[in-house]
Amino acid sequence: MLTSFKLPILQKAQLLRVGNNKPLSAYHAVCLSLIAPHGSTDMWIHPIQKYALNYGSSCALFLFQPIRMKFFFLFLYSIFHLMHDISASVPIQLAYSTGIHLSWVCFPEWALTYLAWIHTPLHYARVIPLLTKVQVFSLVMTHIFVYFLIRKYETNDLSFDGTWIPLVIGHIMTNS
To answer: Rounded to an integer, what distance in angstroms lies between the CA atom of residue 71 and that of residue 51?
Structure first.
């Protein structure tokens, strides 16, 4: 039986907290460069009032919270958000999303893989038809820029003290 301190996700968090000064792998950089910019489509497909209110309120509520609180709320919001990755009844969507999130407890690397290769393409399948060619080009260039930017970081630099979490929650609120 796994005890809480032996859960792989907690071991991974401990590595990031204590310091793991190794360069980010090319695979992780690709995944992160696919995931990070996908929320930027919100400004093109939603009215400014909606995304400004959601991102602004998320930053106001969560930016200065302790990191554990940020991750707790990210986990809750994320369960709700990933429910929409499948078309099914709400109980099945909830079971699916909860199962995905529980798998990340034992297999933390799966989170990046899922978000990069399943969630983000599903998001783009919904929004790309609504974008202009210039917006799609801008999005592709942003992915490339983020890839080269993120390659300069080491793994222990990536938490940024959770300052990115309110932006993710803002994206979730905008797309709910």
So the answer is: 21
